[in-house]
Amino acid sequence: MSASTLTLDCQTQLVLEAYICYEAQKLELLDKLAPYIEPPLLPENFKNGPQIISTIETLVESFERTLSDQSESMDLAVDFGIGDNFDKSRLITCYSCLLARVLCKTNWGRIVGILDMFKKICISLIESERTEVVPDIVLHTRRFFINQCSPFLKSNHGWSGLISFQNGLSSGGKLKNSPENRYLQAFFKTFAGFVGMGLLIKVVTSKF
């Protein structure tokens, strides 16, 4: 497979599968996930794949620290009905609405927020013995990114753009006129916009 044939769709699938496998492994849940999703073999023309995954982890952890005051009030297993009387269609519907609300405007900060939500829902499913639904969440998230974020991703070097974004954060925002600095500003504006994330989840899920 040449670099030109590694489509954005393929990249997105690889990124989502590799990231959730990485997070599951950290929590010693990979054995439960393995029957449904195994760590993907990244092709040679996606050599920066591991760096993209580690960058996502760093950014998501930063995002979670920023929202740490809300974490205690966010119980995804309860809000999304992952437990007794589980309704897969309701979960997908609620998740779709949440994605649409968060990604009403696309920037790296909002994409990181979606990846955080993606991780939390997948881990909740695994811990609740609903691992068979994780591939559906991966598929739905991939389709959403492709349908809603393709222009942004294509104009910002695909998923590799996250690495430049993280470098902009690490530099202390000194790249005054660079795209990375604009992403940095958008990132913190996004954080400010996520002050009500816990409330947003409850509002969205209460409608279904």
Account of the protein in words:
The chain has 208 residues and is mainly alpha-helical. The protein has a single domain (3-205), classed as Orthogonal Bundle (Apoptosis Regulator Bcl-x), CATH 1.10.437.10. Helices cover 67% and strands 0% of the residues. The longest helix is centred in the C-terminal third of the chain and has 22 residues, at 134-155. Keywords: Apoptosis. Residues 76-159 form the Bcl-2 Bcl-2 homology region 1-3 domain. This is Bcl-2 Bcl-2 homology region 1-3 domain-containing protein. InterPro entries: Bcl-2-like_sf (IPR036834), Bcl-2_BH1-3 (IPR046371), Bcl2-like (IPR002475).
Structural class: mainly alpha
Largest β sheet strand count, sense and barrel closure: none
Low-confidence stretches: 173-178, 187-196, 199-208
What is the CATH homology-level superfamily?
A: Blc2-like
By CATH reckoning, the class would read Mainly Alpha
C-alpha termini separation = 43 Å
Total DSSP E strands:
0
Arithmetic mean pLDDT: 76
Based on CA atoms alone, the radius of gyration comes out at: 17 Å
Q: How much helical structure, as a percent, in the residues?
A: 55-70%
How many helical stretches? 11
Query: In one word, what is the shape?
Result: globular
Order of helices and strands: HHHHHHHHHHH
Please indicate the percent range of residues in DSSP E strands (runs of 2 or more): under 5%
- Second-tier CATH architecture: Orthogonal Bundle
CATH topology: Apoptosis Regulator Bcl-x
Number of domains: 1
Oligomeric composition of the shown chains: single chain
Protein name: Bcl-2 Bcl-2 homology region 1-3 domain-containing protein
Keywords: Apoptosis
Pfam families: Bcl-2 (PF00452)
Domain Bcl-2 Bcl-2 homology region 1-3: 76-159
